[in-house]
Every structure is written in structure tokens, then in C-alpha cells.
Amino acid sequence: MEIKTVGVIGCGLMGAGIAQVSAAAGFKTFVLEVNEDVLKKGIGRIDKFLTGGIEKGKVTPEQKATVFANLTGTTSFADLKDCDLVIEAIIENVEIKKKTYAQIEAVVGTHCVIASNTSSLCITELGAGTTRPDKVAGLHFFNPVPLMKLVEVIRALATSQETYDALMTYARAIGKEPVTAPDRGGFIVNRLLVPYLLDAIRCLEEGLGTVEDIDNGMKLGCGYPMGPFTLLDYVGLDTTYYIANIMFEEFRETRFAPPPLLKRMVLAGHCGKKAGKGFYDYSK
Ligand code: CAA
Ligand code: NAD
């Protein structure tokens, strides 16, 4: 199975990065959004990253041109008809993802692989909702996609060897280091990372320290590139809240339960950097 044309559903924090690295590696890439405004914002995110990369001397103008030559933004599923692989990177909600897979299956060929960038959902369940469970798998990228080397490739119970092999090959072709992860909520990285992030919120609620002090503690004391609150704002508090609920549902362990403050921040719309406000204020 050879992957030449790739579709990415969602051009948010993750979809924009996935579309960028796919186009940069020479794949003809289509990125789909719900409307033109959101699409424009997502393409703008790619443009900003590449322009910043040129300023830093990390990206050449030719590399930027390659990305935009290979990338087409769209709001129409019909444009995905020739895709060999469609990577879904939309909201962390099983029912919305299933509906989206039906829309994908209505246009793509029978050979097309559907991969989810889900952080925590059951890949076997996502596959079971399609007519091609053997061609469904998880392909879990890390934020920011262009800079983080890892991709978790998740085999569901029904995922075929051919699908798994094609995704391992694709991950390497876009310059990532793939690891195989089991179809268990949170896979490998989030199984460890999510309880840590939720614990930081619990510590804040208990008055252990300020946001800044806890962040500095982990950054300066442990050498983490970002403190937990900077990272929570970066990932998105809405996404973290969805993930926590899904992992709590899966394992029924309190360490995965979303702390009350997280829920309230999401309800208030303080969803982190993308919303202009989270644990920190980004409005300026
Ligand atoms: N184009 C190209 N290269 C760029 C760039 C750009 N626009 N911007 C930065 N870079 C390069 C820099 O040049 C630098 O490269 P060198 O190391 O070769 O010098 C490197 O990227 C790091 O950049 P900076 O030094 O500017 O920035 P930083 O040191 O502050 O690092 C970061 C930024 C990589 C995001 C770092 O803070 C980090 O690793 N944070 C943690 C991120 C993380 O944990 N992500 C996982 C989130 S969880 C998840 O994704 C899973 C889930 O399901 C929720
Ligand atoms: P996001 O909110 O930044 O972006 C999601 C995008 O999907 C939005 O732009 C939205 O308009 C679009 N969308 C929603 N429904 C759609 C539909 N039916 N069709 C097309 N587009 C649709 O979210 P994100 O952070 O990019 O997360 C997307 C997925 O990636 C989630 O499953 C999440 O768990 C996973 N993920 C997130 C991170 C992270 O750090 N944020 C890391 C790894 C994986």
C-alpha cells in the first residue's frame, strides 16, 4: 500500500501541524475545516510557523514554498476523494469523530486508511463504527507537531498488518520517530502525562504554590521545557478536560478524574493559549 495523497480533517492546533509536516515531506495534502474562516486561521498558523522558522534560520524559503505547493485547504469532503490516508484531528468526542468517518467513507476509495490523532479514545471503537475496521488505526502526534519527534502508532484489535506497516512508513517519511502503542486510553505518553498535569491543578487548588511557582519548580528544578500550567495552556484546557473524562471512564481511577477547577475554567471559556486566557493571560 503506497501513500501519496493525504487528507487531514481539522486545521486546529494539531491538524495544522500535521498538514504542514505532511506537505513538507512531499505528500499531496488536503486539509479540511468546518468553514472558510477557521480554515484561514489554520493556514495562517502554518504560515506563521514557517515564517518564524525562516527568521530563526531553521526553515528555508524553498521549504516554505514546498509546503504551500503541496497543500490545499478545503471545506468540502469531496476534495478528499483521491486520498490514500486521511488523518482526523478534530474535537476529542467519539460521536463527532464517528460522524466524520462516515463523511470520509462516503468519498474515499476502499483502499484508504483512516487514522485518528485522538489523545485518549478507543481506536477499536472508532474502527468498529466504519465499514473498514482493518484500515483504521491511531496516529498520535505531539504538540507542537513540527518540533516534536514522536508519533504513537496504535493498532486496534482489527487493524491489519498492512495498515500498521503503511502508517509506520508514513511516520518515518515525515521525519518522525514512530513507537507502537496499545489501544488503551492515553496510549503510552498520555497515560503518564495526563495524571501529572491533573495533579498540578490539584496542587494549585490545595494552595501548594502559585501557578508561576509550580511552573518554575518543574522547569528549573527538573529541567522540564515547560511547567505544567504552561503546558496545560498550550495543549488546551478543553482538550485536557475531554481527555481526562475519557481516561477516567476507561480506568475508573481517581488520578484521571478532572479536578473541579479544570471543569470550571473550560465552562468559563478559559481554554488556554488558543483562547487568549487559561492559567496565564495571552490577550496582549
Ligand atoms: N520553525 C522551525 N524550527 C523552530 C521554530 C520554527 N518556527 N520555532 C522553534 N524552532 C526550533 C528552534 O530553532 C529550536 O531548535 P534547536 O533546538 O535546534 O535550536 C527548537 O525548535 C526549540 O525552539 P525554541 O528554542 O525557540 O523554543 P523552546 O526551547 O521554548 O521550545 C518547545 C519550545 C519545543 C515547544 C518546548 O517548550 C517543549 O518541548 N515543550 C513541551 C511540549 C510538550 O510537552 N508537548 C507535548 C504535549 S502533550 C501532547 O501533545 C499529547 C496530547 O495528546 C495532549
Ligand atoms: P483544536 O480545538 O485546536 O482543533 C480542532 C479543529 O477541528 C477545530 O479547528 C475545529 O474547527 C475542527 N473541527 C471540529 N469538528 C470538525 C469537523 N466535523 N470537521 C472538520 N473539522 C472539524 O483541537 P486540537 O488540539 O487540534 O485537537 C484535535 C485532536 O487532536 C483531538 O482529538 C485531540 O485530543 C488530539 N490531540 C491534541 C493535542 C494537543 O496538544 N492539543 C495533542 C495530541 C492530540
Secondary-structure map with pairings?
Layout (H helix, E strand, L loop, with lengths): L4 E5 L3 H12 L3 E5 L3 H20 L5 H10 E4 L10 E4 L5 H12 L7 E4 L6 H6 L7 E6 L8 E6 L5 H13 L3 E6 L6 H17 L5 H12 L5 H8 L1 H15 L8 H8 L17
Parallel strand pairs: 1-2, 1-4, 2-3, 4-5, 5-6, 7-8
Antiparallel strand pairs: 6-7
Helix pairs in contact: 1-2, 1-3, 7-9, 7-10
The structure holds acetoacetyl-coenzyme A and nicotinamide-adenine-dinucleotide.
The site of nicotinamide-adenine-dinucleotide has 27 residues, from helix 1, helix 4 and helix 10.
Fold and architecture overview:
Helix content is 47%, strand content 14%. It has 284 residues and is of the alpha/beta class. It has two domains: 5-181, Rossmann fold, CATH 3.40.50.720; 190-275, N-(1-d-carboxylethyl)-l-norvaline Dehydrogenase, domain 2 (Orthogonal Bundle), CATH 1.10.1040.10. Helix 1 packs across helix 2 and helix 7 packs across helix 9 (228-235). The termini are far apart. The chain binds acetoacetyl-coenzyme A and nicotinamide-adenine-dinucleotide (NAD). Acetoacetyl-coenzyme A is lined by residues 49, 52-53, 56, 58-59, 119, 142-144, 147-148, 190, 193, 225-226, 231, 235.
Summarize the structure.
By secondary structure, this protein is an alpha/beta fold. 47% of the residues lie in helices and 14% in strands. The protein has helices at residues 13-24, 36-55, 61-70, 94-105, 123-128, 161-173, 189-205, 211-222, 228-235, 237-251, 260-267; strands at 5-9, 28-32, 71-74, 85-88, 113-116, 136-141, 150-155, 177-182.
